[in-house]
Amino acid sequence: MRRAPCVLAHVILAVTIQLVKGQDDAGLLIGRNPHTGRLLRYDGPAHLITLAPTRAGKGVGTVIPNLLSAERSVLVIDPKGENARIAGEARQRFGTVHVLDPFEVSGMPSAAYNPLDRLTPDSLDLGEDAASLTEALVMDPPGQVTEAHWNEEAKAILGGLIMFCVCHEDHNRRTLATVREYLTLPPEKLRALLELMQDSDAAGGLIARAANRFLGKADREAASVLSNAQRHTHFLDSPRIAKCLARSDFAFSDLRHRITSVFLVLPPNRMDAYSRWLRLLVSQALQDIARDAEVSVGAQGASQRLKTPTLFLLDEFAALGRLEAVERAMGLMAGYGLQLWPILQDMSQLKDLYGERAGTFIANAGVQQVFGVNDFETAKWLSQMMGQETAGFQTDSFKPGDGPSFSNNLTGRDLLTPDEIMQLRPENQLLRVQGQATAVAQKLRYYADPEFKGLFVPQDQ
């Protein structure tokens, strides 16, 4: 049996040029056209997603090129502080830069942000705002249903303590460090605090309800709930984290009105202990921008907002854990001037975090960028997403006493098999833009590509 020569690489490369949208200087950078050498950009409103393993070039080819060139507001998770060191100066050309770096790994002065600063005692949304903070603080492990009750009760008492802090503490004490202080009081002092909460009529009675809910529990259940709330707030004991949460040097709503860049720096070796800090700030940024968008509708200041959406470059996305604010933003908040770009190592990370809801991220991503695939599950998913082509082959048959006979046949073949996807050259990537065929493009290298010369601060290798 003889197959026709495989021309799949040529077929896929041929459609790459279709990915260019808009003008040469518009949109987010997603690669380079291998035929023309032109940069490929996406200027659509949809979110983006990148799948690439560690050390595959996510920062070099995706994060830093866009930080150097995107004239729009950006929030970026910067695990090692490299992005701030390399692109911080370039971002200052566009607008204000804030580097939140509690462990001082970027070499730049750290800004601070206090999530409680925007909560006010007379706000009708105080209960909702406190609840959003507790959602970020309390991480629900995927698939562990047994933890659900204790986590919900921990959120309830945490919400009550946050509201009490906002309504009854002096301004300089309205911090999460104070809430942590409440949780670690001796038993008799904690009970006295809860009784004060019962007498409070602030926040529409929500503080008193939270205290009543907790004090109404049996001793063993109350102790378990308190222990769980303490466990989820243990990271606040760090003086570095507390300092970074002690004041607000900016408001996340600024990102909608003037070009602002926010770097969230947290070293990989601190991720396990302090990922809640990242969750907290990302969640607050999403809520603040959405709230600002709601207030601006029909308001006189609405015309002053930026026309380009705020970009969230969420490197090390899995470190955030399952975060309802991100899932909601991915599915519903594109119209709020938000564009999310989660960056993961593979599909299994996304499925582990969001289970059946992982499809929400894929369905709402206008661009899917994949490179360096080395796991079969991701390669198989990609192969199925790309579809098949019709391939021809010829068969020969021989019978004794008769001449040879030939027949031509057609069959379906994957455009790229999982094995072929895992064997793509290191400089190539797969791009799937909404409504277009999957294409092979070249990855960017900010330090070697001429378009970025002179824009970044060189680093010692």
Please tag this protein with its features.
16 helices, disordered N terminus, 461 residues, alpha/beta, globular, three-stranded antiparallel beta sheet, nine-stranded mixed beta sheet
What does this 3D model show about the protein?
This protein has 461 residues and is an alpha/beta fold. Helices cover 38% and strands 17% of the residues. It contains 16 helices and 14 strands. The strands form three sheets. It has a nine-stranded mixed sheet with strand order 6-7-5-8-9-4-10-13-14, sandwiched between helices. Strand 2 and strand 3 (39-42) form a beta hairpin. Helix 5 (148-168) packs across helix 6 (176-183), helix 5 (148-168) crosses helix 8 (206-215) and helix 5 (148-168) crosses helix 9. The longest helix is centred in the middle third of the chain and has 26 residues, at 271-296. The radius of gyration is 26 Å and the shape is globular. It starts with a strand and ends in a 19-residue tail after the last strand. Mean pLDDT is 87; it is low at 1-23.
Sheet with the most strands: spatial strand order: 6-7-5-8-9-4-10-13-14
Structure classification: alpha/beta
Q: Tally the helices.
A: 16
Global morphology: globular
Mean pLDDT: 87
Order of helices and strands: EHEEEHEHEHHHHHHHEHEHEHHEHEEHEE
Record field, number of beta strands: 14
| Rg over C-alpha atoms, rounded to the nearest angstrom | 26 Å
Helix content: 25-40%
Distance between the termini: 52 Å
| pLDDT < 50 runs, ≥5 residues | 1-23
Q: Major β-sheet, in short?
A: 9 strands, mixed
Strand content: 15-25%
